Known about the structure:
Blueprint: E1 2-6, H1 12-21, E2 25-29, H2 33-40, H3 51-60, E3 64-67, E4 75-78, H4 93-102, E5 111-114, H5 122-133, E6 142-145, H6 155-161, E7 164-168, H7 171-181, E8 189-193, H8 194-225, H9 229-236, H10 260-266, H11 272-303, E9 308-312, H12 327-338, E10 343-347, H13 362-368, E11 371-374, E12 391-394
Parallel strand pairs: 1-2, 1-4, 2-3, 4-5, 5-6, 7-8, 9-10, 9-11, 11-12
Antiparallel strand pairs: 6-7
Helix pairs in contact: 1-3, 8-11, 10-11, 11-12
Amino acid sequence: MEACIIGLGYIGLPTAVLAADAGxxxxxxxxxxxIVDGVNAGKVHFTxxxxxxxxxxxxxxxxxxxxxxPRPSDVFILAVPTPFKGNHEPDISYxxxxxxxxxxxxxxxxxxxxxxxxxxxxxEKVAGLIFSERPDLKDAFHISYCPERVMPxxxxxxxxHNDRVIGGMNETSTRKAVDFYRRFxxxxxxxxxxxxxxxxxxxxxASRDVQIAFANELSIICDKAGINVWELIELANKHPRVTxxxxxxxxxxHCIAVxxxxxxxxxxxxxxxxxxxxxxxxxxxxxxxxxxxxAIKEFELTNHKKPVVALMGLAFKPNVDDLxxxxxxxxxxxxxxxxxxxxxxxxxxNIQEHKVFKLTDYRxxxxxxxxAVFLVAHDxxxxxxxxxxxxxxxxCGVFKR
Length: 401
């Protein structure tokens, strides 16, 4: 079997590598020539444990080769971004462009799988596009939707072991997609139709967004009430049917912070709770920004000098190098813009350098800081001792004080 995987990002490349390792001849496709050159040299352009080793292995074995344009295959997988237009309206133009780029390679009997996060109805739109331009494929070409379920930092394991939901435009398409994923996925493969699979992906992350919003809203309430939210949540979770998540500085990443908008855009009047959860989680980052700015002003009034402020963490979640939709990055940017003559030390232990922020070692920054603002609960931060001689803003539970 041969597969062509279009989009060699956080999902496409790990999928390509795992499929190649399972004996599928894979052509990886990306419009970025530097990414293509890197993959063909066995190199990975982002950090994901174990991916570089496995990528180098399958490239050396001739099972994975990258290109800038699609190649004829038996299976095509779309793993391209789905960004927003204005007002959080989903933009599937990348998906449609990827289909158009490969449509001349399609032949009867082939299978196209969409893995990109998409609004409900996208699979049907893709089918309409293909059959309008290639009527010869009508009733002889198979299309399915299968969203990924992975956590950055554990992507390879979860791609292989997590259950998958697979929905085809018909039963034959679903079965062909199931047969493909069975070659390298050990989790259970659940069959459904395309609209249900599309909505399933959105609902999973919207559900998590709502749960996080409850924790974040609770943290704001507890701050005003003078209650330790970490202790409160620990005690409340002693109830056998209560599981409250941990609050943070907001919600980031390219899933939880994004996918609910795919629902609210199409169902604006019906998705009241989902939409409100997005507002709460966005507001939490704004609230953290205000708290930080107020701490700086209070320090200046009390000490008659500008503080050294350490902003601890830029990633969207602990222990990854992924800054997409990161509330920590937003907070750091806003605080620095509000105090452009301030003395800031920016910390992100999971990346070596950043084109905007000058990075400082976390131990050095914490030692020098008058105000330490913990935005991401990276494991190294938890090794630092509490310091009574510093102003500490712990938005993510490093010290839980």
